[in-house]
Amino acid sequence: MIVRRPVPSTGVFRPVRPDDTRTSPEPPLADVTALGPTGDASAPTPYWPGREVAVGDTTLHVRETPGPAGETAVYVHGLGGSSNNWTELAGALSARCRGLAVDLPGFGRTPPPASGDYRPAAHAATLTAYLEDLRRRGSGPVHLLGNSLGGAVSLLAAAQRPDLVRTLTLVSPAMPDFRPLPSRLGGRRAALALLPLLGAGARAEQDARTPRERLARTMALCHADPRRVGDRAFAMAAEEAEERAGLAWAPEALHHSFLGLLGTWLTPRSGSPRSLWTAAARVTVPTLVVWGELDRLVGVYRAAQTAAALPAGRLLRLPDVGHVAQIERPQTVARAVLGLLDAAADGSWPAAEPAVRTITADRARAWTHRLPLGVVRPGAYGTVPV
């Protein structure tokens, strides 16, 4: 996959649009002038302790990565994930922003919602209430980052309350994907387990597996190559999986959050506030979309459509990366996010324009290859494989 990043230039900044693509020889990505400090990639990032934060009738568990007081990043995990999914990226960005990674209701160490409502809109309402609390305390608007289900939740929050969000980063957001491929969910039995009535037997089979066995299957689905997961990261994830296995409400939270997401997918596009496509068209803040080309869960074919639906959206496609780019390539994603933050701060991120509502296959292919990267800096653009 060819992606775009800046070539040192004294020219005036001109964002590349589908009809204006530039190419030029370039050095490897690592040789480019640093976009900003992203921390020491060789040093392990500490798993910062969490704390409980009262948000309405919910108590959110939030993990904080210390950073400068000026800017705050809020991280939202995906289905079955937790705040730990952002540890490495939050560490890489800690020289620029304080990081706050939330456990959504029913996940990580946050208890289930009193309402029993796990729909993305309900999660978005909780997230919005948390962002409002941050702003009252002088920590907003924030840089909002979401992965998978957390991407959908963040998208809804940014559409409803743009005043609370400075920039938005979506890593493989859970946009509607109806490909009938059971392998996306771990096989036919795993897909069957998601059905309310017919899946009871399959769910019992899953429950019989050890937490580590379930974790290994999840990593095989989410990572392009699970063999690249380090021992330390796997040990931390295994510890968390074993802790979660002791929570009676954990399976229900996972199951009903999936069904809530599916309900959102089934919502028609035509103006419904529950539609993710409708929400995307209403997001006016600078937005970076990051997608792994080997994403098994939400196909990369949705990447260009998602970026095109966002009025101020730009796309970064990463080869040899799966569904969790922030875990698989934290330093690469950090550089892209820093480019977004810098461009949003100095006004060089292209302004919002009307979203493209209908995208033909040919147009989608054009957007895939010609959208500018999230790493937006003054100067001309070139192309380089990464």
UniProtKB/TrEMBL annotation:
<protein>
    <submittedName>
        <fullName>Pimeloyl-ACP methyl ester carboxylesterase</fullName>
    </submittedName>
</protein>
<feature type="region of interest" description="Disordered">
    <location>
        <begin position="1"/>
        <end position="46"/>
    </location>
</feature>
<dbReference type="GO" id="GO:0003824">
    <property type="term" value="F:catalytic activity"/>
</dbReference>
<feature type="domain" description="AB hydrolase-1">
    <location>
        <begin position="74"/>
        <end position="330"/>
    </location>
</feature>
<dbReference type="InterPro" id="IPR050266">
    <property type="entry name" value="AB_hydrolase_sf"/>
</dbReference>
<dbReference type="GO" id="GO:0016020">
    <property type="term" value="C:membrane"/>
</dbReference>
<dbReference type="InterPro" id="IPR000073">
    <property type="entry name" value="AB_hydrolase_1"/>
</dbReference>
<dbReference type="Pfam" id="PF00561">
    <property type="entry name" value="Abhydrolase_1"/>
</dbReference>
<dbReference type="InterPro" id="IPR029058">
    <property type="entry name" value="AB_hydrolase_fold"/>
</dbReference>
